[in-house]
Amino acid sequence: MGKSCPIDARMRAARALLLASACTAMPAVAQESPAQDASSQPEQGEIIVTGIRGSLERAAEVKREAPQVMDVITAEDVGKLPDANVAEALQRVTGVQITRVFGEGQAVSVRGLQQVRVEVDGRTLLGWSARLSPPENDQLGRSSGLDSVPSSLFGRLEVRKSPLASQAEGGLGGTVNLVTPKPLDFKETTVSLRAQGVYSENSEEFEPAITGFATTKFLDGRVGIMLAGEYQKRTSTTQAFERNNFLNRNYTAGGVTTVQQTPVLLQYENFVVDRSRLGLNGAVQFEVTPEFVVTADALYSELTTGRHQDFFAFRLPTGANPVTNAVVENGAVVAGDTNGTVTTAGQIRNEPTKSYLYGLNGRYESGGLTIEADGYYSKGTIDQTIQIITLQANAAVPGAFDFRDVTIPSLTLGGAFDPTDYDSYRPATNGVRSNRLLGLLEEWTGKLDLSWESDGGVTLAAGVRYTDLHARSNAYRSQVTPTREEIEPFLRPVDMGAFLPDIPGDFPRSFLSTAPTYDYVFTRAQAAEPNPDPNDRSTLLPNSQRDYDFTEKTLAGYLMVSGEGEAAGIPFRANAGVRIANTRLSVDTFLNVGSTSTLVTDENRYTNVLPSANIVFNVTDDFLIRVSGSQTLQRASIADLAPSTFFNATNLSVTGGNAELDPPISTQADISFEYYTGRSSLISGALFYKDVKDFIANFVTTGIDLDLDPQGRELVFSRPENLGSAKIKGFEIGIQQFFDFLPSPLDGFGIIANYTYSDSEDNNGFPLVAVSKNSYNLVGLYEKGPFSARVAYNYRDEAVFEFSEGRPSFIGPRSQLDAQMGFDINENFALQLQAQNLIPEDSATFEYSAAGPIALNSYALSERRYSIGLRAKF
Questions:
Q1: ∠ at Cα 113 (234, 164), nearest 5°?
Q2: What is the mean pLDDT of residues 245-257?
């Protein structure tokens, strides 16, 4: 199926990522990998494979030669799927599951564990992600959310499932390494452009996505420069039921008291999200001598998310006997009558986030000696603002609710309350509130690696890595109770047709909301509660209960030996080593008691010894068996380590961190096989086992804290804890096959299918957070001549997402169907059509309590997206 170079140029014009190389170029390599051997690149006129098939062939080559258990997607493969960001591209990989927010992939889990390190060329890219639900400080982690990074900036995506001692620690599930292209890897000047229009069904918006890539070399090929960029804009709609939980309540009847799990809050919400994503990546390389290459590169990513939200909330009372005529199923009250508090609101929220990564790398290779020095600075910022105007009912409102046999619970209001009449709301508790959150993440890292290969083929390697990580969060919040007349210009009626139109059910669809503006809310709230410190970062009142200043310094070193040989006549390659990491952290927060705030410093320190070993047996040229054993760790997220306490008066929730958290440690083993049935076809499988100690999860309780809430209302507390140990065991299997044995044109068909089984259990017998027991992907392929097509379906079943009063709450199963078609118009231009989330009801995110799906906590429905794009490559 190979084609000569001119035809190759025509085929490659259809590539979805503009980082694909010219017809004589190979994909970029990670900085931690050996430099690309020029002799391995195809010469002019050589028969090579392109398109989808060529992408899969290159990915198979990288997987075959990898020194560890690893899966790879090359640039061609990413671009051939309708994937807006890196997280969505990775969902096709065996053993990878993703979470979605606002209809787009945000974070990944590997083999059931969400503790995954994300790197760019082995470096940390810091930043935040947009989230649907509070707590907002949950965004603060140790790497950028994958939804903030355009996928077109990378030439290869690597999912490392077993570690090497030479690679940075920090992922229980594994490491995702995003590999950028480097200019000296290209033999020819390459320029490519793509213009795309994306239509979102419910938002009825047709918006642009533009990408570009250019690279060239000069001074006899010793200096290379590369620049890539992408801009995307998308307006989307999310329809949701949110923020409920089922908590214990006492019921007394006939002198007997029982405890029943009872809903807390029924909140119906509609989000309109305006999101733009900008990414830029550049590199300059200088071959000082044939042995010594210097690389300077930079990456910039900006995700600006603005949203408008309307919600109608009905909060149940918290005392004894909150529900009459209660219907109990599976230990939960799922229907009944009650008197609740009604709140409606309009909210605008903007959270521009930016990520920066600057690096300098020098690599020297001579004979068997390799010296590599790498230093980088990574930075992430956020400036989140929230403006909200709330309305609250004059008195308790009678209501009848029912969770049975409906998508989201029904709610029928009684009494004299009219949700569309302003007279039903009381100004004394209506509020104008302005929030601001300023966040900074920054990391300085330097490392030095040395390796020496003996004449016998044995390589000794050693290295040291020092990291200085700093994070700061400053929150501000001012509010005021305005007059009735003052709010009237901002009233906004929500009518039947506009509120949650795609979710069936009987619940309030017409009610009075508000239309806040930034200028009014910010100015009015600031005037009522100004910041007494004119030198502070905001003129709003400091909300010090959310503030922290975090510093973490890590010194790590490793020793590793690798080589090859034969055992019982079977060739093998192996590596073994140990990594030692010492971590010191300090975090400053405020302890708030009443009106008094006291600065408190918490410290922690620990040292970890992490051994690892990998061996691969080449049983035949095409059949490989890998065995690996290792220990890995995952440091707690920064937000989890900050003991600051955040009280959300709207949701009556209290969240905070815990500086005494120990890093979870996973002792793991893998046995895998790879059978390469063709240059682009393979069958693979693996057995894996992980024993995790000091696992971290949020623990939810209830109680009253008069210092936080003088009204004495029941609050829901959520803090991270080391909840004990856990074990994960499972297997994965995959097949990647083109049907070359069929007659033309049927020989253009192919399939990618994979399945992962992860069985997890903690020391209390509960499954681990975010671990789905079953997940799989099915991708149908066709590529023949100028035409290509894919249909991709992925599925994951339920998983725990938190614990409430010691009981697990779950996120339900979900699936998604996407499709893509491409046609090469000529050698330089190609057309692509894409459709994403074709069955929205199947991809909806829903969460429920321990009683099962009938005890619904939240439901979020996203929309379909369609796109058409034109590509040009020269």
A1: 105
A2: 92
3-state secondary structure of 427: coil
pTM: 0.85
Please, what is the average pLDDT of the chain? 86
The Cα 866–Cα 516 span in angstroms is 32
Average pLDDT estimate for 743-751 = 93
pLDDT band at 874 (very low <50, low <70, confident <90, very high): confident
Average pLDDT over residues 223-244: 93
Where exactly are the structural domains of the chain? 5-873
Q: Which residues pair with 860 in a beta bridge?
A: 240, 845
Q: Which pLDDT score is estimated for 130?
A: 53
524 pLDDT exceeds 80? yes
CA distance 526 to 530: 5
Q: Confirm if 730 and 112 have CB atoms less than 8 A apart.
A: yes
- Contacts by 840-843 with C-beta closer than 8 Å and gap 24+? 840/502, 840/864, 842/814, 842/815, 842/816, 842/817, 843/100, 843/814, 843/815, 843/816
The listed CATH number (3.40.718.10, 2.40.170.20, 3.60.10.10, 1.10.150.120) that belongs to domain 5-873? 2.40.170.20
Is residue 90 a contact partner of residue 104, using CB atoms and an 8 Å limit? no
- Dist CA 544 CA 476 (whole Å): 8
pLDDT in tens, 773-802: 999 999 999 999 899 999 999 999 998 888
CB of 623 within 8 A of CB of 656?
no
Round to whole Å and give the CA distance between 388 and 433: 5
Cα-Cα end-to-end distance for the chain:
23
Smallest CA-to-CA distance from 357 within 273, 280, 469, 256 is with 280
Q: Cβ distance 232 to 703 under 8 Å?
A: no
pLDDT at position 285, please? Answer: 98
Could you give the CA distance from residue 53 to residue 607 in angstroms, rounded to a whole number? 46
Tell me if residue 324 falls in helix, strand or coil.
Answer: strand
| Least confident stretch, 344-353, 426-435, 511-520, 753-762 | 426-435
Pairwise CA distance, residues 730 & 758, whole Å: 4
In the chain, the percentage of residues whose pLDDT exceeds 90 is 60
Does position 527 have pLDDT exceeding 90, yes or no?
yes
C-alpha to C-alpha distance for 19 and 824, rounded to whole angstroms: 18
Between residues 107 and 414, which one has the greater pLDDT? 414
The tokens describing 516, both together, are: 């806040």
Give the mean pLDDT of 119-130.
84
Task: Using alpha carbons, select from 858, 860, 856, 857 the residue that is nearest to residue 843.
Answer: 860
Question: DSSP 3-state assignment of 732?
Answer: strand
What number of CA atoms fall less than 13 Å from residue 141's CA on the CB side?
23
Residue 53: its H or E element: helix 51-65
Query: Residue 210 in 3-state DSSP?
Result: strand
Tokens 């590169």 — which residue? 297
The span from the CA of 142 to the CA of 550, in Å, is: 12
Could you write out the DSSP letters of every residue in 478-526?
Answer: EEE---HHHHGGGEEEE-TTTSSTTS-S-S--SEEEE---HHHHHHHHH
